[in-house]
Amino acid sequence: xxxxxxxxxxxxxxxxxxxxxxxxxxxxxxxxxxxxxxxxxxxxxxxxxxxxxxxxxxxxxxxxxxxxxxxxxxxxxxxx
Amino acid sequence: xxxxxxxxxxxxxxxxxxxxxxxxxxxxxxxxxxxxxxxxxxxxxxxxxxxxxxxxxxxxxxxxxxxxxxxxxxxxxxxxxxxxxxxxxxxxxxxxxxxxxxxxxxxxxxxxxxxxxxxxxxxxxxxxxxxxxxxxxxxxxxxxxxxxxxxxxxxxxxxxxxxxxxxxxxxxxxxxxxxxxxxxxxxxxxxxxxxxxxxxxxxxxxxxxxxxxxxxxxxxxxxxxxxxxxxxxxxxxxxxxxxxxxxxxxxxxxxxxxxxxxxxxxxxxxxxxxxxxxxxxxxxxxxxxxxxxxxxxxxxxxxxxxxx
Lengths: 80, 308
Fold this sequence. Notes:
Chain A has one domain. Chain A contains 2 helices and no strands. At the A-B interface, helix 1 and helix 2 of A face strand 1, helix 3, helix 10 and helix 11 of B.
């Protein structure tokens, strides 16, 4: 039981480290360039901005969850 | 990092850490965590209108992640969630109208502060009493040496007699919720619970999971694990509605929400997975300090006049 907990914690730690690297890359490659475009949309087309905001949030949620699930599967698959 | 929509300059690391903490709380307890996210955004200089709107957008993303995780564990009652969304949206509108009325009367801050303190303290006190009573009676019922496992995950409540009484109310139309194990409950009771949750959401801000989750357990008789998952599913719909209206009013910086959500995405998964290791009453007992944090923040703001 104890070794199982240690394995889970180790898997989480590795996942967190890889995830942190991916998030940093995501900041600089995606969010940094989205800023100006979204700002212009917010100023000129409020309704389109509102819809885009929800879609972006849901899209990011789904993509990130798939990334974390995949990471967990790979890491746990190796550690078992 | 500069955020051009709100004109704020905030460290992305701070946002990710805040998102991570709120993600764990949300995944574990089924709450939006607005009583922590709002003040956390305000603390770094974001205006209150942006803090409220941006927090709602972030709640949408976080709830999507947590719901997918809870669904994989069979913790989401889609039928109940969709019915509740109708009552929540209606309640949120009425709550927002009440705020407008108080704004016009010029005493919005005082009334909302007093109501929120009373609500947070009542919820904490009640949940502490109920979950401790349930845990004590469970200990008495379990024979010595019984192996923890499936039995420990069974959901009991010291408030069950009231729940059964509510389920016996035969007000047409009666609804069956097979996923939640409820054989028959009046549609009006579900709508009323959702409406009250929505009312608090519109009046006090955020997703109001702190009142909806306990109401689902004690009034509707939904098992705690399902109440957490279904509440999150319902929050996706109500928070999306809130995000849209706030964004139209110019109160959402979606970039801040996206950055916060990168932390919340992993936090929510950890929170949702953690629910599998705890029995219902223990989750409810662990929930007790959360409304107290909200109450402490409001009391601090009231007495010092400082915004966090």
